[in-house]
Write a structure and sequence with these properties.
Blueprint (H helix, E strand, L loop, with lengths): L1 H7 L5 H15 L2 H14 L5 H14 L3 H13 L5 H13 L3 H14 L4 H5 L1
Helix pairs in contact: 1-2, 2-3, 3-4, 4-5, 5-6, 6-7
Length: 124
């Protein structure tokens, strides 16, 4: 089972098992289980990868048409250490997919102020 697999992993890798299980549950239509597994992944993830879990949570919420929750997860990712440019890129793409082009442009401009040398942000 997934739980057994997670507990057989070294503690610093356990979050990845929960994350993959959450994806599986999402595709299976089990939104509540997906959210619980993502919460467990976030609980087990080292601080340096918290951003990745938040992004995954945002993607899941967007897939479930819960856009406010997706934006909340991205805001949480922005608050994580490092202010990773990938969070901004994910935020830009999510807003653009939802047709919120003005918001996407604002996020892009804010991102470029912090990360002016990141070509992927310029192309967004």
């Amino acid at each position: 089972s997934i739980g057994n697999a997670a507990f057989c992993c070294p503690k610093h890798l356990r979050w990845k098992v929960w994350l993959l299980a959450a994806r599986s549950e999402l595709w299976d239509g089990s939104a509540d289980t997906c959210r619980k597994l993502l919460a467990q992944a976030q609980s087990d993830a080292p601080s340096r990868v918290q951003v990745a879990v938040c992004i995954e949570r945002a993607r899941a919420e967007e897939f479930l048409d819960c856009f406010d929750e997706a934006r909340e997860a991205l805001q949480e990712a922005h608050a994580c250490e490092g202010h990773d440019w990938k969070v901004y890129l994910e935020h830009i793409f999510m807003e653009a997919r939802q047709g919120c082009l003005k918001v996407a442009k604002e996020v892009t401009l804010n991102a470029l102020e912090l990360h002016p040398a990141t070509g992927r942000l310029w192309s967004a």
